[in-house]
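Re: weekly structure request thread

Next one in the queue (319 aa):
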Amino acid sequence: MEHKVRKGMKWLWLFCLLCWTACGGEEPAGETLLPPKDCEVTVSVRLDAASLRGMGDPGSGTGEGTAEWTRIDIFLVYDWGQVLHYSLGEDYVSGKEQKFYAFAGTVRDVYAVAYKETGVTTVTASSEQGIQDLQTALLSGFSTAEEKKAYLLSLFSGRAGKAIEVEKEKITTIKVTLQRIIAKVDVQWDAEDAYSPEGYVEARMGSITLYGTERGWFFPQFHQAEEALTYAGCYQADDAVSERNGRTYFYTFSGQKNKFTFSVSHKKKGEGASEKTEYTAEFLSPLDAASWHKVNLSVKGTSFEAESHDLQLMSNQGN
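Done, posted below.
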């Protein structure tokens, strides 16, 4: 009897061993075996920081020639959908080659973004669609106009725009150029021509307010323009010189249908209180990234016909 029990146990152990051999090499359901990251790649990221300058743009002193970003994120998208995410810190020098290790295979495209870290918004993605949907921080999270301006000027994005083969025992070089994702609206006004001894003795520019969105897309080319404009940046003409003529500029997220409003206070000789006429100027199409738009406002003539006017602006760069 004892011999039969031992024999039965022997077959039981053999059965368990066969089951382990058959099943032990399988991966748990849902997991995918990834190839090793054993291929050397060098990535060079160049930031085009002077892209908002244009002919006639006062430019100097605006801070546009610098890019005070603190982080660059680089995304390699493979043809099977896998995304490799690398980061560079603020000590990275634009254009310098940085070494990483990657999978062998075809990289469908390379995306990169640069920005000033806020501690609130995390820039990360695990798919190409997620990369294309990356958004900036909310402008309402900054306390002052200078903080908002510094953040807007730190925002860049770009793509390699082509497939790249990563091979073993070969160094693959990847180069990406980043452009600003914001647009600049440069407004200049002149009310001097409205003054005349027999005409207007007062013609003054009031506040100028640009309307845009509170946050932007890092890759606005993949998204339709927003119809609802939620963020307003304002310039106040608050001294006698700037009320007659002056110049200011705004930064706004690209890919949006922007507009701005302004008012002109006016009075003819012999009249009592000044009257005010309100204007709304709307761009007919979304503003492109890294573009500069010059708007010239001239006040002249002998009469103001209405209390408000709507103006339409072409959004070609430099107009």
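The first helix runs from residue 2 to 23. Helices lie at 2-23, 128-132, 145-152, 240-244.
Next request, please.
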